[in-house]
Predict the structure.
Amino acid sequence: MNKKPRIGIYGSVPRDSEFFGILTRILGYDPYLVKEIEQDGIIAPVCGRAKTFGAHFTIYDIFTPTDYDAVIERLKEIIGRYESFDFKFTGFSGYVRGDYQGKSVYDDKMKTVLALDFDDDSIGKIKQIHADIVQNIQDLRSAIEPEFDKEIFRNIPELWRLIQQFGAPYVLENYSPHLTVASRLDGSEKQYDQLISYLEKTYGDRLLDKSIPFGAIYIFEEIVDGEFYGYFRIRDVLRLPNG
């Protein structure tokens, strides 16, 4: 029996924008074309799993839908309550996420993920959409996914509680919207500082403090066979009113 594709509900940048081209080069993968792109050579060794998604930021993390069409209809109903808006990336920063070489990074607060941050006004709006979707989609997902059903999360009560209730650890009060550009940092301050400096110098003037439309949510679907097994592709784009 074939594995059932999982999906994630994400934000992105417009496909026809310069931002999409830049981020696709940084990450080395186009989720529309399901195609690898020549990747930034400095980011490639530390990109990690971020590459398998391409340009995206999480609204609701991966889950197995019980009924894909029902999920789409529910999402259309939810996003119909919101208007499109513009957001800006304000800078690059690090996040404590997951594990490093099988060891919990939470003990030492090591920043193993590098991402673009959003302006404060947009953070509030994205959090509203996130909370609405998370709280109203639970009856349409299957059990906890393997990525989150691990000791590393079981040993952190505040994360495990969210996983049990909502299927993912970084939701609601623990949700911090960001667009990941690398997810395999070694946690050292030296590497972190070097990468921040490089990204700011190389891409800062083209990515930071520019108005970008948030006019849609994107359904990324896991590829379950072939060359790009484990990567994700964009299956549907659902537009907000006026988006």
User: Anything to note?
Assistant: The mean pLDDT is 93.
